[in-house]
Design brief:
Mean pLDDT: 94
Structural class: alpha/beta
CATH class: Alpha Beta
Number of domains: 1
CATH architecture: 3-Layer(aba) Sandwich
Distance between the termini: 28 Å
Largest sheet: 6 strands, mixed
Number of strands: 6
CATH superfamily: Glutaredoxin
Low-confidence stretches: none
Radius of gyration: 14 Å
């Protein structure tokens, strides 16, 4: 995905955990952070406390959605996904992308990967890999600050 592109429809999930959301639920109200992760990804698990912190600190200002993107056959086990999600406190909606349908639409090949969309649903920031949580936080705050200036 390119910057300023609109958030795609969130379709093709094998299953949703912790509730289901649509693009219409997200766009228009507040910015959204969509993060791709996988049960077999060490960096994803390492970064999860920070993602959860975003979710909790900005719960009134930011939508947070998780997308589980498998990297191997082992990653397809729904019980494993549920178990790791519980272990790591992932309480936000989880799009289980076992067929890579959403990953393909996002043109995403990485876990962890983070996409920040503004309130209009335009992509404002993308980053992949385990480092750079400070940069992600800056980008999220920039989008939130713009929102406050327009209200």
């Amino acid at each position: 995905m390119k910057l300023r592109e609109l958030m795609p429809e969130l379709t093709g999930a094998v299953e949703w955990l912790n509730g289901e959301v649509t693009r219409e639920d997200l766009v228009g109200e507040k910015p959204t952070l969509i993060h791709f992760w996988s049960v077999s990804c060490y960096l994803c698990k390492e970064a999860m406390p920070q993602v959860n912190q975003f979710r909790d600190d900005y719960q009134d200002k930011l939508n947070v959605i998780a997308v589980h993107m498998p990297r191997s056959e082992e990653d397809l086990k729904l019980d494993s996904i549920k178990e790791v999600a519980a272990e790591h406190g992932i309480t936000q909606p989880i799009f289980v992308d076992s067929e890579h349908k959403l990953a393909d639409v996002f043109e995403n090949q990485y876990v962890p990967a983070y996409y920040v969309f503004d309130r209009e649903g335009k992509l404002r920031h993308f980053q992949a890999g385990g480092s750079g949580m400070k940069m992600l936080e800056k980008r999220v705050n920039r989008v939130l600050d713009e929102l406050e200036k327009t209200e």
